[in-house]
TrEMBL record:
The keyword Transcription applies. Keywords: DNA-binding, Transcription, Transcription regulation. This is LysR family transcriptional regulator. Gene3D superfamilies: 3.40.190.290, Winged helix-like DNA-binding domain superfamily/Winged helix DNA-binding domain (1.10.10.10). The lineage of its organism: Bacteria, Pseudomonadati, Pseudomonadota, Alphaproteobacteria, Acetobacterales. Belongs to the LysR transcriptional regulatory family. Residues 1-59 form the HTH lysR-type domain.
């Protein structure tokens, strides 16, 4: 009998806990399921299942064999999918994760265009500021932000930089005149944090070092757009990426503090699991993002 088919039958029966359920799922008869299992047990010289009239469970060796079969079948499926996707046909499913607001504002419109261009490409987009594990969650592509190049054992490519901007409402600026970033520590600040822990704002110095400043904490929020709204409302100063606040600055709702002074650059990177050959679907989406952002 086909050993790979027998493995699939065994794995399906183990996961469903029933020969009848496995037969229904696989479109074969229950006796055929039993025949595949018996063939494996005879070949291996072990008992894979403990079976009674009421229940069925994996033996200790059966559980070990199940784990290895799952790995083998997944490897075969991945290999087949990779060979297919490495053709010029952009198709299949691409799972991608990215920061929530940055993804919705800047990346999602690009990906919507990709979906229109490639009819056989299915996109699964996950907006998450908690940076889910790329390998565990089986993501094909991710966007990560940081102040330096990200190296986590994955392949990565720099996407774009955006300067961090210190800003406040025009009224707040008139009431709290600041000529240097060092004066921020004497004024109310609006902080972003997911844990409640306030982190210093960072500014580059001429010698290449970084100055850290912590304004007086007035509000801590876990949403950067809410911070921008609080700044517009005149509640304090905010340290935010330019892509988020530039429209508000252009509209006169916010003003930059010390615009002549250099600010830190926030880097965004494309990240993907290392592989010798990149699937066509991933290459196509990456190219659209790089050329459009």
């Amino acid at each position: 009998m086909d050993s790979l088919m027998s493995m699939r039958v065994f794995v399906t029966a183990a996961e469903l806990g029933s020969f009848n359920a496995a037969a229904k799922t696989l479109g074969i008869s229950a006796p055929m399921v039993g025949k595949h299992i018996n063939t494996l047990e005879d070949h291996l010289g072990i008992t894979l299942f403990h079976r009674t009239t009421r229940r069925m469970s994996l033996s200790d060796l059966g559980r070990i064999y199940y784990d290895r079969c799952v790995c083998i079948l997944n490897d075969i499926e991945t290999t087949n999918a990779l060979v297919k996707e490495l053709s010029h046909d952009v198709s299949g499913t691409l799972r991608m994760t990215m920061p929530v607001l940055f993804g919705k504002r800047l990346i999602a419109p690009i990906l919507f265009s990709a979906s229109e261009k490639y009819e056989n490409l299915k996109l699964e987009l996950y907006f998450d500021d908690n940076t889910p594990d790329i390998l565990t969650e089986r993501f094909d592509l991710a966007i990560r932000s940081g102040f330096s190049s990200i190296k986590q054992g994955f392949a990565s490519q720099h996407l774009i930089n955006y300067p961090m901007v210190v800003c406040c409402s025009p009224t707040f600026a008139e009431q709290h005149i600041m000529k240097d970033f060092s004066q921020l520590k004497d004024h109310a600040g609006l902080f972003y944090s997911r844990s409640g822990q306030v982190r210093p704002w960072r500014f580059p110095k001429a010698d290449g070092n970084i100055t850290e400043i912590v304004p007086r904490c007035r509000l801590v929020l876990n949403d950067i757009e809410a911070i921008a709204d609080a700044a517009v409302a005149g509640l304090g100063t905010a340290w935010l990426p330019s892509w988020l606040v530039q429209e508000r600055i252009d509209a006169g709702k916010l003003v930059r503090i010390c615009p002549e002074q250099e600010t830190l650059q926030l880097n965004y990177h494309l990240i993907w699991p290392k592989t010798q050959l990149l699937p066509a679907k991933t290459n196509a989406v990456m190219e659209m993002i790089r050329s459009s952002i």
